Amino acid sequence: MLIDTYNRIHNYLRISLTDNCNLRCFYCMPEENYHFMPNQQLMQVDELIKIAQLFVEQGVTKIRLTGGEPLVRKDAAEIMHALGKLGVELTITTNATRVNHFIDDFEKAGIRSVNISLDTLQKEKFHLITRRDQFDTVKNNIDALLLRGFKVKVNVVVVKGLNESEILDFIEWAKNTAIEIRFIEFMPFDGNQWKSDKLVTLHEILSKISEQYQFIPSTNAAHDTSKHYSIPGHAGSFAIISTMSAPFCSSCNRIRLTADGKIKNCLFSEEESDLLNALRNGEDLLPLIENAINTKHKELGGQFSKQFELIDANTIHNRSMIAIGG
C-alpha cells in the first residue's frame, strides 16, 4: 500500500489522458491559443497501462480518467477497455460534448459513474464561459447517460459575479432528475485569474440554498472530498467541494498522473516526479512513486494556508488546471 507520513492510504489514481480540450473555460485554460503537448510527450497506451498496473499492484482500487477533455483523445476507447480489465472501479470526468460517441465503450469498460463539468444552465452563458456553442449537445448527452442508467454527477465551479445566481436553478434541476449537483469552490491555478473575492464558499452556498429549500446532511464516505446533502422529495441530491474554505486534506487518498506521465501527490503540489521518462529509460518506477507519496505535504500542497483571504495566486507555483488533469 502507498501510505504517506501522515498515515494516509492512497488508493485512488486520477489519470489525465490529454491536456487537450474542445472547450476553453477560463478557470481551466489560461488562454484561447494554448499550446498543447505534442503526442510523443504523452503517455502512449501501453505505457499508461503499465504505469496504471503498477499502481494497482500497490493497492489502488479506483481510477478516474480526466483531461483536458479525455474523450478528444483518439485512443480513449482503447485505454478505457484496457483499464477496465485491471479489476478496479473505473470512472471518468468529461465535459460531455462527445459522450454520445462513447456510451457503449463506457459500458464495455465497466464505467457506471460519469462526472460532467457544466457551470451554467443558460445557453448564452455557456458560450461565454466555454467560448463554444455546445450547450444543447451537453444537455442531450446528460439525458442519454441517465436514460442508460449511469450515475451522473454534475460539477459546477461557482464563481462570484458569474454563476452564483444559478445555484437554486441547479438545485431545481435535481428535483425531478436523479443527478448529484456538486458545487465546487473556485480554486487558484496558473493563469486562471483567481482572487479571493471571486470565491463563493461552502457557507455561502448553503445559505443561498436554505433560502428556498430545507436540506439534510448525508453520510460522507471516509475519503469524500465533497460534503453531501439531500432535500426531501427530490430525486437528486447536491454536494459541495470546499477546497478553499473547509479543506479535506486529512483524509486525502488521491494520486494524480498527468498526461505526460508526471506524478503529482496533490492537486496544488509544485513538485512532480517523472514516471514516463523513467519508464522509457528502463528504470524502476516504484521508488519514485513511494518517494512522491512520502514527501506529500500535510495540506494544500504546502503552498498556501486555509486563510484563503490572504492567498496571492501569483505566488503559487503550479500548472494550469488543464495541464494537471482535474
Provide tags for this entry:
12 strands; TIM Barrel; 326 residues; 26% helix; 17% strand; alpha/beta
Short description:
With 326 residues, this protein is of the alpha/beta class. The protein has ten helices and twelve strands.
Q: How would you characterize the overall build of this protein?
A:
- The protein has about 325 residues and is an alpha/beta fold.
- It has one domain: Aldolase class I (TIM Barrel, Alpha-Beta Barrel), CATH 3.20.20.
- About 25% of the residues lie in helices and about 15% in strands.
- The protein is built from 10 helices and 12 strands.
- The chain has a 12-stranded mixed beta sheet with strand order 7-8-9-6-5-4-3-2-1-10-11-12.
- α1 runs parallel beside α2.
- The longest helix has 13 residues.
- It starts with 11 loop residues before the first strand and ends with a helix.
- The model has no long low-confidence stretch (mean pLDDT about 90).
Secondary structure topology:
Blueprint: E1 12-16, H1 45-57, E2 62-66, H2 76-83, E3 89-94, H3 103-109, E4 113-117, H4 123-130, H5 135-147, E5 151-158, H6 167-173, E6 180-185, H7 202-210, E7 216-217, E8 226-230, E9 237-241, E10 254-257, E11 262-264, E12 273-274, H8 275-280, H9 286-294, H10 321-324
Parallel strand pairs: 1-2, 1-10, 2-3, 3-4, 4-5, 5-6, 6-9
Antiparallel strand pairs: 7-8, 8-9, 10-11, 11-12
